[in-house]
Design goal:
295 residues, alpha+beta, 6-stranded antiparallel beta sheet, 8 helices, 6 strands
């Protein structure tokens, strides 16, 4: 019965065929290629090619305009000054050659038009000056100042260690993470990546888990039980509670791991962690909690 219904649907034109998925229609996966949709006509194919060509041409044009604006940034920002200055000179020249008295006469339509032109010209000039004075600050990754470190806590079980190392590999591959510290059950179970160097012997500064847990950063994150994202770490006074991270760490994520731990993730660029990164890190934390709670 289902096979007959599938054959009937396959013979119908594409516009009359009800929308359905292969599984819902009861058609086995192995018979899929035998009942593929009817081929497109030459006119439809030509229309698709034309649409693709138009989209590609528009995209290339948009990329060209964007590249030209980037390469001529100063000219584009100063363009309102040029337009406003030219308009101002044109209005004054028109006033001089028109034979109208230099004194403004409110009853004259020419005087009212000149006043509006002067106001718009001055507005353009001021807008150009603002564009030239305000420039976006370019944000680029920095090289963390510190030493490479890989310390694993003594109480970490054999099943938990591969999970922790997988977390580190995943974070460094998919995000801007350069430092990772995992504190769980009152102990530092993992310190890996770039760490701050000790001024005494040059080795990586060890994580004092107890002192860190007494700080405001840890307490606020654990009380809220939500991820805390410090997009620009230099602006936060709590930076002093993280002496084990490189001094020039740009961004930081404090991710609670259940009720017993927290992950400290340092990045090398301001606002480097996207919304997708943050959501993914929260899911990894749940996975780590399930693993570390068994160790």
């Amino acid at each position: 019965m289902e096979l007959a219904r599938s054959l009937t649907l396959a013979l119908l034109p594409a516009t009359l065929r009800p929308p359905c998925r292969r599984r819902r229609c009861g058609l086995p996966l192995g018979l899929g290629p035998l009942f593929s949709p009817l081929p497109l006509s030459s006119q439809q194919l030509r229309q698709q090619h034309e649409e693709m060509y138009i989209v590609r041409a528009l995209r290339q044009r948009q990329d060209w305009v964007e590249g030209w604006v980037r390469s001529n940034d100063t000219l584009v920002r100063g363009l309102p000054i040029l337009v406003g200055g030219a308009s101002l000179l044109a209005a004054l020249l028109n006033r001089a050659v028109s034979g109208i008295a230099a004194v403004t006469d409110a009853s004259s339509s020419q005087s009212r038009a000149d006043i509006l032109t002067l106001a718009l010209s001055v507005t353009d000039i001021l807008a150009g000056l603002v564009w030239l004075s305000i420039r976006p600050k370019s944000i680029s990754p920095v090289v963390p100042r510190g030493v490479e470190c890989k310390r694993v806590g003594t109480g970490v079980s054999n099943p938990a260690l591969p999970e922790l190392l997988w977390t580190w590999d995943s974070l460094t591959t998919a995000t801007c993470c350069k430092s990772l510290v995992v504190v769980y059950g009152g102990n530092c179970v993992l310190q890996i990546g770039v760490a701050a160097g000790s001024p005494e012997d040059g080795n990586a500064v060890m994580v004092d888990a107890q002192k860190f847990m007494e700080g405001s950063l840890y307490r606020s994150a654990m009380e809220s039980k939500k991820q805390s994202y410090l997009a620009n770490l230099a602006l936060y006074p709590g930076r002093s509670e993280l002496p084990f991270l490189p001094a020039n760490t740009q961004a930081l994520i404090l991710q609670p791991i259940g009720d017993k731990g927290i992950a400290i993730i340092g990045g090398d660029i301001i606002r480097g962690f996207t919304n997708i990164d943050q959501a993914w890190i929260a899911m990894i934390a749940d996975k780590l909690d399930a693993t570390l709670s068994k160790s």
